[in-house]
Amino acid sequence: MQKAAPSRVTETVTAPRRVSVLGATGSVGRSTLELIGLADRPHTVVAVTANRNAKRLAELAVAHGAETAVLADPAHYRELRDYLSGTGIEAAAGSEALVEAASRPADWVMAAIMGAAGLRPTWAAVQQGTRVALANKECLVSAGSLFMQAIGERGTTLLPVDSEHSAAFQALDGSRPENIEQIILTASGGPFRTWDMNQLRSATPEQALNHPNWSMGDKITIDSATLMNKGLELIEAYHLFPVEPHQLDVVVHPQSMVHCLVQYRDGSALAQLSSPDMRTPIAYSLSWPERMPTSVERLNLAQISRLDFEPPDNDRFPALELARQALEQGTAACTVLNGANEVAVEAFLARNIGFLEITRLVAHALQGAEQAGLLVEPGDIDEVLVLDAAARQLARGLLNEYGHSST
Ligand code: NAD
Ligand code: MG
Predict the structure, then answer these.
(1) Looking at the whole model, is its pTM more than 0.90?
(2) Is residue 29 part of a domain?
(3) Ligand 1 centre from 137 Cα, in Å?
(4) Rounded distance between C-alpha atoms, residue 283 and residue 286, angstroms
(5) Which residue, by CA, sits nearest to atom 4 of ligand 1?
(6) Which of 9, 122, 318, 350 is the most exposed place for a label (fewest CB within 10 A)?
(7) How far apart are CA 338 and CA 323, in angstroms?
(8) In terms of DSSP H, where are the helices of 276-330?
(9) How is residue 156 annotated by DSSP?
(10) Please, what are the averages of pLDDT over each run of 10 residues along the chain (407 residues)?
(11) 258 and 191 belong to one structural domain
(12) Ligand 1 center from residue 302 Cα (angstroms)
């Protein structure tokens, strides 16, 4: 018997044509360009950006026929210009050039710059409208309310790329807020999930960078080891989805195959599962509301045979609770949390502080900011950046007090 072809329920939304990748040389950026190259219909790559790696940026720009390539650091401009000479690809550098590149009209922009450095370019991408695929979680942590307001006002479609948030976005599927009881983010637990306090005290950057499941940039990998990453994601989820802080929970799931569960009021829990490979959420943001083929490893549940879950341990990994407290305190506390954490991670990677001092430093910076009367809600992006700079200064001052050299 022949089965009738299913009727299409929705019209296909026009696939993005002109795309830009901010943070193109990074882990997410490179996977994004790989997927753009594989898409069945050709895209025009408008802009690719990076911090200071001129050679790698130029190679990517040439390989993907980008219109323009921009470095944040002007010290490497000449190098970039020389690499691109004769290619017809524009070269530029500096923070203004980065914002200009992010503002260029495009149907889809991947925001994958690491850290608060992504604030201004991502803000510019949101202002230019259409669709923004958001990997940079620090934007929402530091300035979530301002971003979500701007997105609403500009009519920009925000597509979450962080795997847990992409999973929630898929499992929520536009559900009405009153139907949602809870959103449960999963955390791998990182490389130190089973380590005791003594082991954690002497954990090295090399050990912390050795993530069991995910291959990512250094900063997010350290955040995964402290569980600050999950704290930042809690704040990110609060801004993205129609839930209150008490409706957000975290469960440790060492295999990183279930990315998020949405618990509904009728008792149903919907989850999204996939291999721990960022190409799946990136592909979804690129093809949404359709899906595109990827070569990501498929889950063979019979072979996997078991999936484990456990509660997070707040004694060994206090960063998660610290982030939750910042969320309760408000945007200013979240901005300080993020800025201080970036300084602390940098200091740990430079071996200026130990692993356990990362979260301690952030907690002290938050206390210092409160005592100094800095926790005033920022009214615009400039005020966010001023507060971010103040938080970094506070954190650097504390580094000196800890008896270590400042970064
Ligand atoms: P990465 O370190 O591999 O790459 C970062 C990119 O940002 C690079 O292109 C780098 O040149 C650029 N960059 C760094 N500092 C900059 C600056 N000061 N100015 C301009 N550009 C700068 O990082 P990643 O792992 O690709 O992560 C990027 C973002 O995506 C982060 O916010 C991270 O939290 C988020 N994210 C990453 C993953 C992942 O699997 N890698 C998953 C979820 C979310
Ligand atoms: Mg994540």
Answers:
(1) yes
(2) yes
(3) 10
(4) 5
(5) 26
(6) 9
(7) 9
(8) 279-287, 301-304, 319-329
(9) P
(10) 52 72 98 90 93 98 97 98 98 98 97 97 93 97 97 96 98 94 98 98 97 92 98 98 98 98 98 98 96 96 97 98 98 98 98 97 98 96 98 96 59
(11) yes
(12) 35
